[in-house]
Amino acid sequence: VQLQACGGGLVQAGDSLRLACAASGRALSGYGVAWFRQAPGQEREFVAHIRRNGGHTYYADSVKGRFTISRDNAKNTFDLQMNSLKPEDTAVYYCKAEQFGMEYWGKGTLVTVSS
Fold first, then answer.
1. By the 8 A CB rule, do 93 and 39 touch?
2. Whole-angstrom Cα distance, residue 54 to residue 26?
3. Contact criterion met (CB below 8 Å) for 19 and 77
4. DSSP three-state, residue 45
5. Runs of H (alpha helix) within 20-75
6. Per-residue pLDDT of the chain (115 residues; tens, 9 = 90+)
7. Distance CA 41, CA 13 (A)
8. How many CB atoms lie within 10 A of CB 74?
9. DSSP state, residue 106
10. How many CB atoms lie within 10 A of CB 25?
11. Within 10 Å of residue 91's Cβ, how many Cβ atoms?
12. Around 36, how many Cα atoms within 13 Å sit in the side-chain half-sphere?
């Protein structure tokens, strides 16, 4: 499966942004999907995950209550709605799909939050 993330940009603190990840090559319905991010000079970190059927979601404590992950298996996409953005949310955001221990990453999309 190939993934393409989009939706990044420059916003101000308190603004909202929605990232999208489109999959091609395989049906996304068979994959758990997630968002990660990597800030400058830091390790890549987990942001949010949603199971194949969309029934369970998991979030990093730093984004819980502000970010929402969702998926549309019919459209082969999944999104990350980011509200109340903070400067510390500035990072390159990556989407990931996983199945049977295999991981597939999309190229990142940059989110910059100014104070």
1. no
2. 17
3. no
4. strand
5. none
6. 999 999 999 999 999 999 999 999 999 999 999 999 999 999 999 999 999 987 799 999 999 999 999 999 999 999 999 999 999 999 999 999 999 999 999 999 999 999 9
7. 21
8. 9
9. P
10. 10
11. 22
12. 18
**The residue to which tokens 């993934």 are assigned:** 3
What type of residue is 37? Answer: R
C-alpha 83/C-alpha 69 separation (Å) is: 12
| C-alpha to C-alpha distance for 45 and 112, rounded to whole angstroms | 16
Residues in the chain: 115
For residues 52 and 29, the answer to whether their CB atoms sit within 8 Å is yes
Q: Is 28 helix (H, G, I), strand (E, B) or coil?
A: helix
Of 30, 35, 32, nearest to 20 by C-alpha is 35
The helix (run of H) or strand (run of E) holding residue 36 is: strand 32-38
- CA dist 41 and 2 (Å) reads 27
Residues 55, 52: Cα–Cα separation, whole Å? 8
Q: Are 28 and 96 in contact (CB under 8 A)?
A: no
